[in-house]
Amino acid sequence: MTPCVFVLNGPNLNLLGTRQPHIYGSATLADVAAACAVTADTLGLGVRFHQSNHEAALIDWVHEARTAAQAIVINPAAYTHTSVALLDALNAFEGPVIEVHISNIHKRESFRHQSYVSLRADGIIAGLGTQGYTLALQRVAHLLAEAAR
Ligand code: CA2
Questions:
Q1: Ligand 1 within 6 A of CB of 24
Q2: Can you tell me the distance from the alpha carbon of 111 to that of 71, in angstroms, rounded to the nearest whole number?
Q3: Does residue 75 have a known ligand-binding role?
Q4: Could you say which of 3.30.300.30, 3.40.50.9100, 3.40.640.10, 3.40.30.10 is the CATH number of the domain covering 4-148?
Q5: Which atom belonging to ligand 1 lies closest to the Cα atom of 75?
Q6: Burial (CB count <10 Å: 0-12, 13-18, 19+), residue 74
Q7: Could you give the residue numbers annotated as active site?
Q8: Which residue lies with its CA nearest to atom 4 of ligand 1?
Q9: Which residues are listed for substrate binding in this entry (predicted)?
Q10: In this predicted model, what pLDDT tens digit does every residue of 65-95 receive, in sequence order?
């Protein structure tokens, strides 16, 4: 069976590539989804890519991942810094969780230095641009292969 990875994206990331390219680059979220699909295929992974501006939708996808996915890659966007509810949901998921930030959150405002999601994440990628997503998928493939050994 092909392992499935949920790639989840939080609020305002639907605007990627349209504003603030000096922070987030020029790739759109559709470009990121396409790159994830290509990389997942190469790695023998299936991928389901979602974005929502609503905390509850992200939580519902994490719940769905409990039975439908082997790993989660998540850019929670601003909910990174605020959402205990998202952390609680991720704590109920058993597979690897990789947290991705396009920008280097530690180089930015101090309120971005705190991440609730990091309390659950098995790995964190920040500041590597949208390339962070495909790098996260590589790490997931490695962790799933290791777990299967
Ligand atoms: O660096 C990241 O990936 C962030 O998760 C992005 C969030 C921000 O709140 C986090 O602190 C760091 C913001 C996403 C908003 O994305 C936009 C992209 C283009 C134009 C406007 C917003």
A1: yes
A2: 28
A3: yes
A4: 3.40.50.9100
A5: 5
A6: buried
A7: 24, 101
A8: 77
A9: 75, 81, 88, 102-103, 112
A10: 999 999 999 999 999 999 999 999 999 999 9
Q: 100-125 b/e with 16+ CB inside 10 Å = b?
A: bbbbebeeeeeebeebbbeebbebbb
- On whether the CB atoms of residues 91 and 116 are closer than 8 A, the answer is no
Compute the distance between CA of residue 65 and CA of residue 74 in angstroms, rounded to an integer: 12
Rounded to two decimals, the pTM is 0.98
Contacts for 48 with CB less than 8 Å, ≥ 6 apart:
4, 5, 6, 7, 68, 69
Q: Is 18 exposed, middle or buried (0-12, 13-18, 19+ CB in 10 A)?
A: exposed
Separation of first and last alpha carbons in the chain: 15
